[in-house]
Amino acid sequence: MHSFLYRANVLLSFAITILGVVCAIASFTDNFNNPTPHAQVKVLNINWFQKQPNGNDEVSMTLNISADLQSLFTWNTKQVFVFLAAEYETPKNAVNQISLWDGIIPSKEHAKFWTHTSNKYRFIDQGSNLRGKEFNLTMHWHIMPKTGKMIADKIVIPGYKLPAEYR
Ligand SMILES: *[C@@H]1O[C@H](CO)[C@@H](O)[C@H](O)[C@H]1NC(C)=O
Ligand SMILES: *[C@@H]1O[C@H](CO)[C@@H](O)[C@H](O)[C@H]1NC(C)=O
């Protein structure tokens, strides 16, 4: 009896060790994946741009977001969360980050896409800093693995500018 439990225990810890090793290899091999993702965003239209009664600036725009994130997928990838943010500087903050759009990519087959959309989340500045403001659009992603740690990275697309006047 004693020896049976002992053996079962040895077997179990052996199995757990193997499982641990397999998981470690799975997440380790992810380190060798050198992804080459691409993202492109065009501001197709400024739909409107105004100062709200409370003094904050808000802009609505139509975007064409296109990306090829297929290289982020390995056999250890469960899904990839992406979001597009506007990043700009104001006198108060070196970086203001406003999320405009996001999505979940469930598989490699869906990782090459384009979408024609107005900003899903409101682009509001706490203040009236947006007229003529230069900004970057950044495509951020979080790779959710089947095992191991989450990997996050981004592509910065610089060189956008808001109109000088409200409209
Ligand atoms: C959006 O961009 C993609 C890739 O650059 C292009 O194929 C597509 O025609 C564009 N769509 C619109 C509505 O501009
Ligand atoms: C925008 O991108 C440029 C070039 O990558 C960078 O120098 C600048 O700091 C960025 N601006 C913000 C507010 O992140």
TrEMBL record:
GO terms for cellular component: signal peptidase complex. Residues 1-24 form the signal peptide. It is a single-pass type II membrane protein. It is found in: Endoplasmic reticulum membrane. The keyword GTP-binding does not apply. Keywords: Endoplasmic reticulum, Membrane, Signal, Signal-anchor, Transmembrane, Transmembrane helix. GO terms for biological process: protein targeting to ER; signal peptide processing. Belongs to the SPCS3 family. Essential component of the signal peptidase complex (SPC) which catalyzes the cleavage of N-terminal signal sequences from nascent proteins as they are translocated into the lumen of the endoplasmic reticulum. Essential for the SPC catalytic activity, possibly by stabilizing and positioning the active center of the complex close to the lumenal surface. This is Signal peptidase complex subunit 3. It comes from Lupinus albus (White lupine).
